[in-house]
Specification:
By secondary structure, the chain is mostly helical. It has a single domain (about 1-310), classed as Orthogonal Bundle (Tetracycline Repressor, domain 2), CATH 1.10.357. Helices cover about 75% and strands about 0% of the residues. The chain is built from 16 helices and no strands. The protein is globular, with a radius of gyration of 19 Å.
Length: about 300
């Protein structure tokens, strides 16, 4: 256990979220915190932001999003992101052991046994189900469908060069849930929002995948980073342009005010400035560009709120 902790701490970055938890948690809990990436909050943000987009868009003109729903989705995103990490790591534990960036993950290193991870997964899924009980029946059924994506996504990197597309389907399901938890249905604004999120994920996760492309190629993992290669920048730029366009269409069909489009334009400028600074062959740069997508998502969230009032 001590060896594992020393190795894991070496992988921590100064900017990782909640890294301080690793200094206050009991030693036996630390591998479990690492298993659900508790020190790396960016994944939770990228899962949560589409939920907040859907909630805010569904609130209607002149209305704030429901604070209770915002809280429930924040907790739910954290729990389900953790569950997704466990499923992914169970499937990938042998591959992770061969990749420099992931070889110290708890399952890959042997700090946690598979059966322990499965028990922890069941606990998280139970918590997630309890959160769902506060939502309407339509949203509960819709959320249950997402489990098909959660459990099949980790296989995609073995069979297709488009695992980032399937991650987009999975990570942005919350846009549909956020809308349906307010409206008790699905309408065009929610569907367009979901499509926008899919292209957003295709963009940021291709950037992320460029960190591991050499190791991935060696062990046989497929990704859009390997598929696009040196053409990644123009293709990812198109993905972001489609994201912006679909967000605009979603706002238009939802009747948002002009201020939304002004803020969306600022978000677009932010995204394209980040892309201009992206260096495909520098892992640290790829990670930084990936992390800053949280800012893009929050800018869009602010734009939706303003669009409901101004």
């Amino acid at each position: 256990m001590l060896t594992y902790l020393k190795n894991y701490v070496k992988t921590m970055k100064p900017e990782t979220a909640l890294g301080w938890l690793f200094w206050i948690l009991p030693g036996w809990l630390m591998p479990y915190a690492a298993l659900i990436r508790l020190d790396r909050g960016i994944g939770t943000w990228l899962l949560l932001i589409p939920c907040w987009w859907g909630l805010t868009l569904a609130a209607g003109r002149g209305h704030w999003p429901d604070a209770w729903l915002l809280f429930l989705f924040a907790v739910g995103a954290d729990v389900m992101r953790g569950a997704g990490c466990i499923v992914n790591d169970i499937y990938d534990r042998k591959l992770d052991a061969q990749v420099e960036r992931t070889r110290n993950r708890p399952l890959a290193s042997g700090a946690i046994k598979v059966w322990q991870a499965i028990v922890f997964l069941c606990v998280l899924l139970f918590i997630g189900f309890c959160i769902l009980l506060f939502l309407n029946l339509f949203t509960i059924k819709l959320a249950m469908l997402s489990l098909l994506l959660v459990f099949t996504y980790p296989w995609m990197k073995r069979i297709t060069f488009w695992p980032q597309l399937f991650l987009g389907f999975t990570f942005n399901w919350g846009a549909l849930l956020g809308w349906s938890s307010v409206k008790d249905n699905l309408e065009w604004p929610a569907l367009l929002l979901y499509a926008a999120g899919i292209f957003w994920t295709l963009g940021y996760d291709t950037i992320y995948a460029h960190q591991d492309k050499r190791d991935d190629e060696k062990v046989g993992i497929k990704s859009t980073a390997l598929l696009f290669g040196d053409k990644s920048l123009p293709i990812v730029t198109i993905f972001y342009a489609l994201t912006i366009g679909l967000l605009a269409l979603s706002g238009l069909t939802a009747g948002l005010g002009y201020s939304f489009y002004a803020v969306l334009a600022a978000a677009a400028v932010y995204a394209f400035v980040e892309l201009a600074q992206w260096k495909l062959d520098e892992p640290e740069n790829c990670l930084l560009r990936f992390r800053r997508n949280r800012n893009f998502g929050l800018i869009v969230s602010a734009g939706i709120v303003l669009g409901q009032f101004l």
